Input
Amino acid sequence: MGDRYNIFSQMEHLQSKYIGTGHSDTTKWEWLTNQHRDTYSSLIGHYDMLNFIAVAENESKARVRFNMLEKLIQPCGPPPERPEDQ
Output
């Protein structure tokens, strides 16, 4: 029983420390938004991947970076409507 409690306390610690790990109340929209933001920030941070995307889209590196930074705001669109009872 002690091991099980220890595992749950470690999971709770990770979930409170890192937003992207989610928790029991994470919605599908929140999970996808975190995944998209992680992907865009990783692509922006890796110079070679940014170059690859710029060549593939036939755009300048600055334009591709700017577009990705804009997509970080709401990568999956606006949040869905929540029911009134919550």
